[in-house]
Structure prediction request, 370 residues.
Amino acid sequence: MKIRDKETNEYYEKIITIKGIINNDKISEIDFKIKLGIVEDTNDFDSTNYLIEKDDNFKLANSGFVFNVELSIALEDYGDYKVALIKNINDPYKMSFKYNKLGDTYGYGTSNFKNVRINLELIGDNIIDSKNIKTSIKPTISTNAQNGIVDNVLEWNKDNTPGLANITITENKIDLTLPFVKEIDLDKNDAKSVIASINVYGFNDKNEEILLFKYPSFKILIDTNLTVTAGLKYYDDNNIQVGFGENPPKAGSETKYRVDFKINNLYDNLSNVVLSAKILGEAEYINEYVVDRGDDIKYDEASKTVTWNIGEIGRSDNVFGYFYVYFRPTTGDIGKKIKVIDEIQIKYKDSYLNKDIVKNFGAIESEKVK
Prediction:
């Protein structure tokens, strides 16, 4: 924003964050000049208020229009855009839009913006399954495809959302779920991303359509979608016995299980890949293992942590390894599942993102003790 220096009468650029409700009388004492007439709140979950032009200055509009955007995955700093990094392509991305008008209690009077329209642009869309988008209020969806680049535009307006004709004090909400396509064409530019842009427009008392709200554009980006599948095995996938002792485990008797790890990687080349896991309770590590690449498995007795330095995993690649544990349940364990492995973690550097990633996975339990 440009701010006038009262002593020199010159304007200079400065970033200003405005939070909360500001009394119109007080703000009128400050000489603002803003290029676009918009103050963007730096907090992703707070509202942004429209500023109306008057005599080359700006002040908060009397409408007191409030608009909030909530995202299911917090945005991270990455390159030119903030990014919502999708770590599982099977989990859709969710947004919620909340909007209302502040009442007379805050000194906003009775003026109001009418015929508001909410516009969500999905620019350069290679990843959204647009045919299966789900919304609590159905928008108008239009698609523009040129030179292999697809833009999808979702718009809520007074025709499909009657509440936008006149904004009320009561908060209104629109929920949106964006599923992803099952297969991504990696040969396309920016194949794993889409840019999301959210703008809200409305007509003022002069019947002029004006920008009420602008959410900073951000990128929805699919990461490599690496998964780790882990489990205790008494029989392998071919039904060959690989464990020993009682199965299911029995109080007072020793059972030996094989702990399998299968790592599947889809989209990016990875380096510096390290898998670790912690052995819990009375379970003990056995120095018997197999890995199909990387260094030997290391075990730290003090922390009971297993570490496997895998090294590199390529696109559309998978890795397999296992080690053994044993434990002897007590009578107090009867009827319970024993948590044997926890704090499963994989670290790696993603070549596409040029970023170090850490993913954590849940615990592994035995069957119920007899």
Q: What stands out?
A: The radius of gyration is 28 Å.
